[in-house]
Amino acid sequence: MNIGEAAKFSGVSAKMIRYYEQIGLVPQAARSDSGYRHYSSSDVHSLRYIRRARDLGFSVEQISELLVLWRDRDRASADVKAMALSHVAGLKAKIAELQAMAQTLEHLADHCHGNDRPDCPIIADLAEPTAAAAAEHCSQAPHRTPRFGVDTPASSRHRAAT
Question: Full-prediction pTM beyond 0.90?
């Protein structure tokens, strides 16, 4: 089958199939005399495997390792399980980070009046340096936190206009 058919049956786009071939994730497809790629049902099966692994969030490097394990019939299932559990731990850490971000933004939004005044805790929080940057900056020179609504360029223009 050609690359379009392989893409259709595997759920992997033709562009990604070419990319996977380029990086060596899958072997180069057989070519016809006229240079067209030809894929076997085994190739499509491998592409489906890759697609499923990508759907589960595995990186290309991890998929490469999974392909080696999949093709090795003498592998220990413990190796596959360890890899899956490591990936689960990474996903849970990412979920925790995203939940923390959402909670922070919800908290800031709850404390924002949402009116026509310039004071905004969301902007104030974004303007604050990170803890590491603040520690570095504090060691270099004294720092005065700007007063939003008073020290900002927009408020200065507004005061000058009135």
Answer: no
